[in-house]
Amino acid sequence: MTHAIWKTFGNLLKIHMNKLNILILGKGYVGNHLHNHLKNDFNVTIHSSEEMDYHNPKTLYKFLLNNGIDTVINCSGFTGRPNIDEAEMKKDLCWMLNTSSPLRVNTTCNMADVNYLHVSSGCVYDGYEKVWDEEDAPNYGLFCNRASFYSKSKHAFENLSENMDNVILRVRMPFHYESSGRNYLDKIRKYNDLINFKNSKTYIPDFCEFVKNLLSKKIGKWRGQDIYNVVNPGALTTQEVCDIMREYGFHNDNWKFVYLADLSIAAGRSNCVMDGSKSKEIYEMRFEKDVMKECFDKMLEKQAEDKRIKNEIEEKYGIKD
Q1: Which domains does the chain possess?
Q2: Does 53 score more than 80 pLDDT?
């Protein structure tokens, strides 16, 4: 048998035995959730760049070979703090983390015969003239003067890696029932001034399940570039999200809707609806309104559990407020 056939056979055997070796790069918002979701089904290792300098091709290549890695999932990148406005001030760092380094990682994985999965962004489109699918050329990236530098850097990776072997997953406005500064719902609750646009979003538990299914279904060596819009169907407007948040008591009394031009921002913002039909080949994402309500149901459950634990501790030790 050729090496490629043996590797495919080996991957099939590993999947059957739940033994695929996965390396996740980046211990951020998406990376940590993904690690927790996949670790019971695969052999998963996660590293931050501080723990392993995966920006260095030699370091990464050695790790891949020494640890028998089958797939690398790159969840690292520059998003800016508190938002993408920071990319306008730190363009060199943004380009390095979103374009240059991922290209080196992709090249290294291809050289090591390791599958490369790149977590990217859907913020390469803007406008409502259509629902954007994977066949549409990004209109809010490298060749758009008004695009944010963040969007340009994300589009640049897609463009420059089009002749490499990779799978690119585009996510937008990720949200989860666990609180985080990266959580779209926490951001909405924190801001007083909001703009009312309809936008596709990604529910992180559904995204993690998509990745799990992709790893199980997309067998063998990945050839060429393949892109998926991993978003939940039934995009909601900001107003509709706020209505749900009010319904569950997670609102901000100071909310008011303003025009985009009224906001003090350094970078433009992508506003669009994306077509996630292709992702159904792997896993059917649930409707945004349904998972949004699931989020708040789980938040209420956690509040009740936290209150129960607090009451138990106060009763046991005689603590009073």
Answers
A1: 3-180+198-234+271-289 (3.40.50.720)
A2: yes
Kindly report the length of the chain.
321
Verify cis geometry, omega within 30 degrees of 0, for the bond prior to 82.
yes
pLDDT at 50: 94
DSSP H or E stretch at residue 52: none
Q: Residue 292 in contact with residue 244, Cβ under 8 Å?
A: yes
Separation CA 211–CA 84 (nearest Å) = 25
Report the b/e string of 7-41 with b at 16+ CB within 10 A: eeeebeebbeeeebbbbbbbbbbbbbbbbebbeee
**pLDDT tens sequence across 13-32:** 554 454 799 999 999 999 99
Query: What average pLDDT does the segment 34-54 reach?
Result: 96
Q: Are strands 198-201 and 232-237 parallel, antiparallel or unpaired?
A: antiparallel
Q: What is the mean pLDDT of residues 276-288?
A: 97
CB-based burial of residue 229 (10 Å sphere; 0-12 exposed, 13-18 middle, 19+ buried)?
Answer: buried
Note the pLDDT of residue 16: 45
